[in-house]
Design goal:
Layout (H helix, E strand, L loop, with lengths): L7 H16 L1 H24 L8 H21 L2 H6 L1 H21 L10 H13 L5 H24 L5 H52 L1
Helix pairs in contact: 1-8, 2-3, 3-5, 5-6, 6-7, 6-8, 7-8
Protein backbone atom coordinates (compact mmCIF):
# COMPACT_ATOMS: atom_id res chain seq x y z
CA UNK A 1 0.00 0.00 0.00
CA UNK A 2 2.59 2.56 1.10
CA UNK A 3 2.07 6.08 2.34
CA UNK A 4 -0.64 8.12 0.67
CA UNK A 5 -0.40 11.85 0.26
CA UNK A 6 -3.29 13.79 1.74
CA UNK A 7 -5.57 15.62 -0.71
CA UNK A 8 -4.85 19.38 -0.85
CA UNK A 9 -8.18 20.25 0.78
CA UNK A 10 -7.48 17.96 3.74
CA UNK A 11 -3.95 19.31 4.17
CA UNK A 12 -5.23 22.87 4.09
CA UNK A 13 -7.95 22.06 6.64
CA UNK A 14 -5.39 20.42 8.93
CA UNK A 15 -3.05 23.40 8.64
CA UNK A 16 -5.91 25.76 9.39
CA UNK A 17 -6.86 23.83 12.53
CA UNK A 18 -3.29 24.09 13.78
CA UNK A 19 -3.11 27.78 12.81
CA UNK A 20 -6.42 28.52 14.53
CA UNK A 21 -5.39 26.66 17.67
CA UNK A 22 -2.07 28.48 17.96
CA UNK A 23 -3.73 31.85 17.32
CA UNK A 24 -5.87 31.28 20.44
CA UNK A 25 -2.88 30.50 22.66
CA UNK A 26 -2.08 34.05 23.77
CA UNK A 27 -5.69 35.01 24.62
CA UNK A 28 -5.92 31.83 26.69
CA UNK A 29 -2.66 32.63 28.50
CA UNK A 30 -3.92 36.15 29.18
CA UNK A 31 -7.16 34.76 30.59
CA UNK A 32 -5.31 32.37 32.91
CA UNK A 33 -3.03 35.16 34.16
CA UNK A 34 -6.03 37.44 34.78
CA UNK A 35 -7.95 34.75 36.67
CA UNK A 36 -4.92 33.82 38.77
CA UNK A 37 -4.29 37.48 39.54
CA UNK A 38 -7.93 37.97 40.53
CA UNK A 39 -7.86 34.92 42.83
CA UNK A 40 -4.67 36.15 44.49
CA UNK A 41 -6.16 39.64 44.92
CA UNK A 42 -9.33 38.23 46.52
CA UNK A 43 -7.26 36.04 48.80
CA UNK A 44 -5.04 38.97 49.81
CA UNK A 45 -8.09 41.16 50.47
CA UNK A 46 -9.62 38.49 52.71
CA UNK A 47 -6.39 38.05 54.67
CA UNK A 48 -5.94 41.82 54.99
CA UNK A 49 -9.44 42.19 56.41
CA UNK A 50 -8.34 40.28 59.52
CA UNK A 51 -11.24 37.83 59.41
CA UNK A 52 -10.67 34.27 60.57
CA UNK A 53 -10.13 31.51 58.04
CA UNK A 54 -13.17 29.59 59.26
CA UNK A 55 -15.47 32.58 58.80
CA UNK A 56 -15.74 31.97 55.04
CA UNK A 57 -14.30 28.51 54.57
CA UNK A 58 -16.02 27.56 51.31
CA UNK A 59 -15.00 30.84 49.65
CA UNK A 60 -11.34 30.40 50.59
CA UNK A 61 -11.27 26.73 49.60
CA UNK A 62 -12.69 27.74 46.22
CA UNK A 63 -9.91 30.28 45.74
CA UNK A 64 -7.18 27.78 46.67
CA UNK A 65 -8.63 25.09 44.38
CA UNK A 66 -8.97 27.61 41.54
CA UNK A 67 -5.37 28.71 42.02
CA UNK A 68 -4.18 25.11 41.84
CA UNK A 69 -6.27 24.18 38.80
CA UNK A 70 -5.52 27.30 36.77
CA UNK A 71 -1.83 27.18 37.65
CA UNK A 72 -1.63 23.57 36.42
CA UNK A 73 -3.46 24.45 33.20
CA UNK A 74 -1.15 27.44 32.67
CA UNK A 75 1.88 25.16 32.89
CA UNK A 76 0.38 22.57 30.52
CA UNK A 77 -0.79 25.17 28.01
CA UNK A 78 2.78 26.43 27.68
CA UNK A 79 3.72 23.01 26.25
CA UNK A 80 2.66 23.38 22.61
CA UNK A 81 2.13 19.69 21.87
CA UNK A 82 -0.12 19.21 24.90
CA UNK A 83 -2.02 22.40 24.15
CA UNK A 84 -2.85 21.31 20.60
CA UNK A 85 -3.96 17.85 21.71
CA UNK A 86 -6.06 18.98 24.70
CA UNK A 87 -7.43 22.34 23.56
CA UNK A 88 -11.09 21.43 24.05
CA UNK A 89 -10.37 19.68 27.35
CA UNK A 90 -8.61 22.76 28.74
CA UNK A 91 -11.44 24.99 27.54
CA UNK A 92 -14.09 22.78 29.16
CA UNK A 93 -12.21 22.66 32.47
CA UNK A 94 -11.70 26.44 32.55
CA UNK A 95 -15.35 27.08 31.72
CA UNK A 96 -16.56 24.59 34.36
CA UNK A 97 -14.25 26.08 37.01
CA UNK A 98 -15.41 29.62 36.28
CA UNK A 99 -19.03 28.47 36.44
CA UNK A 100 -18.43 26.71 39.76
CA UNK A 101 -16.71 29.79 41.15
CA UNK A 102 -19.69 31.92 40.12
CA UNK A 103 -22.17 29.74 42.00
CA UNK A 104 -19.99 29.48 45.07
CA UNK A 105 -19.67 33.28 45.11
CA UNK A 106 -23.48 33.53 44.82
CA UNK A 107 -24.24 31.25 47.77
CA UNK A 108 -21.41 32.39 50.07
CA UNK A 109 -21.92 36.16 49.84
CA UNK A 110 -24.81 36.39 52.30
CA UNK A 111 -28.37 37.12 51.21
CA UNK A 112 -28.99 35.70 47.73
CA UNK A 113 -30.77 37.87 45.16
CA UNK A 114 -31.61 37.42 41.49
CA UNK A 115 -28.94 39.98 40.55
CA UNK A 116 -26.10 38.18 42.33
CA UNK A 117 -23.00 37.58 40.19
CA UNK A 118 -24.73 38.57 36.94
CA UNK A 119 -21.61 40.55 36.08
CA UNK A 120 -19.40 37.51 36.75
CA UNK A 121 -21.56 35.28 34.55
CA UNK A 122 -21.46 37.96 31.87
CA UNK A 123 -17.67 37.82 32.17
CA UNK A 124 -17.85 34.04 31.66
CA UNK A 125 -19.94 34.54 28.52
CA UNK A 126 -17.51 37.07 27.04
CA UNK A 127 -14.60 34.82 28.01
CA UNK A 128 -16.11 31.87 26.14
CA UNK A 129 -16.49 33.88 22.94
CA UNK A 130 -13.28 35.89 23.02
CA UNK A 131 -10.57 34.03 24.94
CA UNK A 132 -11.26 30.30 24.95
CA UNK A 133 -9.98 28.30 21.92
CA UNK A 134 -13.33 26.82 20.93
CA UNK A 135 -15.35 26.85 17.71
CA UNK A 136 -18.47 28.98 17.28
CA UNK A 137 -20.83 26.07 18.00
CA UNK A 138 -19.12 25.19 21.30
CA UNK A 139 -18.97 28.87 22.28
CA UNK A 140 -22.71 29.33 21.68
CA UNK A 141 -23.53 26.18 23.65
CA UNK A 142 -21.34 27.25 26.58
CA UNK A 143 -22.63 30.82 26.50
CA UNK A 144 -26.28 29.78 26.49
CA UNK A 145 -25.65 27.10 29.14
CA UNK A 146 -24.04 29.70 31.41
CA UNK A 147 -26.97 32.08 30.94
CA UNK A 148 -29.73 29.51 31.41
CA UNK A 149 -28.08 27.87 34.39
CA UNK A 150 -27.90 31.19 36.27
CA UNK A 151 -31.54 32.00 35.53
CA UNK A 152 -32.83 28.50 36.34
CA UNK A 153 -30.77 27.92 39.50
CA UNK A 154 -31.53 31.31 41.05
CA UNK A 155 -35.12 31.18 39.86
CA UNK A 156 -35.72 27.81 41.55
CA UNK A 157 -33.82 28.79 44.70
CA UNK A 158 -35.50 32.17 45.18
CA UNK A 159 -39.00 30.98 44.23
CA UNK A 160 -38.92 28.74 47.31
CA UNK A 161 -38.56 31.81 49.53
CA UNK A 162 -41.14 34.30 50.75
CA UNK A 163 -40.38 37.06 48.28
CA UNK A 164 -42.69 38.39 45.61
CA UNK A 165 -42.96 36.05 42.61
CA UNK A 166 -43.80 38.95 40.28
CA UNK A 167 -40.73 40.92 41.35
CA UNK A 168 -38.55 37.83 40.96
CA UNK A 169 -39.91 37.23 37.46
CA UNK A 170 -39.09 40.82 36.45
CA UNK A 171 -35.54 40.50 37.81
CA UNK A 172 -34.98 37.19 36.03
CA UNK A 173 -36.34 38.66 32.80
CA UNK A 174 -33.90 41.55 33.12
CA UNK A 175 -31.08 39.05 33.64
CA UNK A 176 -32.20 37.14 30.55
CA UNK A 177 -32.10 40.30 28.44
CA UNK A 178 -28.59 41.09 29.67
CA UNK A 179 -27.40 37.54 28.95
CA UNK A 180 -28.96 37.53 25.47
CA UNK A 181 -27.21 40.80 24.65
CA UNK A 182 -23.94 39.39 25.99
CA UNK A 183 -24.26 36.27 23.84
CA UNK A 184 -25.13 38.28 20.73
CA UNK A 185 -22.20 40.63 21.18
CA UNK A 186 -19.85 37.73 21.92
CA UNK A 187 -21.03 35.70 18.92
CA UNK A 188 -20.71 38.71 16.61
CA UNK A 189 -17.18 39.40 17.84
CA UNK A 190 -16.18 35.75 17.41
CA UNK A 191 -17.65 35.65 13.89
CA UNK A 192 -15.66 38.70 12.84
CA UNK A 193 -12.52 37.28 14.43
CA UNK A 194 -12.90 33.93 12.66
CA UNK A 195 -13.53 35.58 9.29
CA UNK A 196 -10.45 37.78 9.66
CA UNK A 197 -8.38 34.81 10.82
CA UNK A 198 -9.48 32.67 7.89
CA UNK A 199 -8.69 35.42 5.39
CA UNK A 200 -5.23 35.87 6.91
CA UNK A 201 -4.64 32.12 6.76
CA UNK A 202 -5.75 31.89 3.13
CA UNK A 203 -3.38 34.69 2.11
CA UNK A 204 -0.48 33.13 4.02
CA UNK A 205 -1.22 29.63 2.70
CA UNK A 206 -1.37 30.83 -0.92
CA UNK A 207 1.88 32.76 -0.47
CA UNK A 208 3.65 29.67 0.89
CA UNK A 209 2.30 27.54 -1.95
CA UNK A 210 3.53 30.07 -4.49
CA UNK A 211 7.02 30.09 -2.98
CA UNK A 212 7.13 26.28 -2.93
CA UNK A 213 6.14 26.13 -6.61
CA UNK A 214 8.81 28.69 -7.50
CA UNK A 215 11.42 26.72 -5.56
CA UNK A 216 10.54 23.46 -7.31
CA UNK A 217 10.87 24.98 -10.77
Amino acid sequence: MGWRRRPPAQREERFYETYYSLSQLYPLLLLLVLVLGTCLALLAAHLASGREFSSNLSFLITLFVALAVFSLILILVCIESIFQECTRVFSAIIWACLLAMGYIFVFTSGVVSAWDQVSFFLFIIFTVYTMLPVCMRDAVVAGLASSLSHIIVLGVYLSAGRGSRAELAVQLLANAVIFICGNLVGAYHKHLMEVALQETFQETFKLIQSRVKLTLR
